[in-house]
Amino acid sequence: MPWPLQRGISGEQRRFSVGSNGSWDSDDSQKKDKTEKEDIYGSRSLSDNSFLSLKAPFRLISSDKASPKMGVNENGAKTRSRHRFAMVVLRVSLALIVILALTISFWWTISISSSSRGHIIHSYRRLQDQLMSDLQTISDLSQGTYKVTELDFCFEEYENFVPCYNVSENKALGYSSENEYDRLCEHNIKRECLISSPLNYRNPLRWPTGRDVIWVANVKISAQEVLSSGSLTKRMMMLDDEQISFRSDSLTSDNIEDYSHQVAEMIGLRSSSNFVQAGVRNILDIDCGFGTFGAHLFSKQLLTMCIAPYELSGSQVQLTLERGLPAMISSFTIKQLPFPSLSYDMVHCARCAIDWDIKDGLYFIEVDRVLRPGGYFVWTSPITNARNKVNQKRWNLVNSFTKSLCWELLSQQEETVVWKKTAKRGCYFSRKSGTMPAVCSKGLDIDSPYYRPLQTCISGTRSPRWVSVEERSTWPSRAKLTKKELQPH
Fold first, then answer.
1. pTM score above 0.70
2. Are 16 and 33 in contact (CB under 8 A)?
3. Would you state the torsion angle of the CA atoms of residues 122, 128, 132, 135, taken in this order, to the nearest 10 degrees?
């Protein structure tokens, strides 16, 4: 039974009298009215308390003697106190986050070297200029002022034009004969014309026939031009007036199979078919000729990237691409190669036009950067089997510098030498004090430099991708990387 009714009809506390005419006494009548009012007020108080209990279910309930108004005021004060405390905690947290961010930013700014900072600023400005140009084009298109014009064909002299490789412009800008064939895009002139395909161009033959036979008209080079070069890496056989065959092409011996077998034996393998089992999959071929070494290894499940410097005619890269093999124009006389650190299992250089003994071994340092731990460097040159004092001195310089790089000389046969890069990072720190080259600082040890100036320090030692070729999964299992192998990327 509800509490107001119990309070209103208590039996003995209620007094009443009946008059002679059977009506209620006036005193009892007043008490009855008072009781009814108390019942009404009690009901309202109960409903109000129920509403407050639903609105604030976690409110502390005061004692029976305390008034409801005092309880509400105390709860409001506690709520405001909690709110103020939460705001103080939030402000302190934000202040700590800002201080931490500024500290990290300041530390990162100090850690970046001046050369890296200049490279970042230069790249940023170039992107900013490109963005402004794109925004202007979009604005013109939206206003209808931009007119689409038909492009004419370029002059015949631009048939072999390659952006960023313009020898005549580089000479005019004052670059030395050593750098005029390098990739220089700072003053690259934008040309709005279409380069036409060579006259009598024909679709390449289907693979694998197209790997060994190409159309003469597609590469704008004749067999006489190639044979007149006198280079062993450029020997080829003319089948007729339209085709060139590479079947008789050779690197350093009468048969490419014998040469690849020799390299495999020097590494400690039975044949070139075992390169994959030794952890070799990606090979960088410097000055690759016409890609004969890579074409042969392709059948052994090995992928070879051919790189060669820019040539005005008879480009090695052009002929290699025409054969359907990977190739790109690149040289590292002043800038690093456009590959991340620790990218290749083997670097190959057979009669390549690189003087490895100059510039204090700067080119060897770049090879060490792109070579994976435990990878191989194969070099074929008459210097390695020198009989005169000049070449012997050059060979001694090369041999001494490779030791400072922690490379192990595996084998030497006639003109071919094979080194193996160390798989232990501690080797660089166990050298004698003052041994050069030094290990790069954190600001210079960048995984993906892309055309940065050549570095004089050893990089890649801090990379999480420092994994020996022998510890990596072999092909084709390497095609499906595990989560652990993908994590460093």
1. no
2. no
3. 140
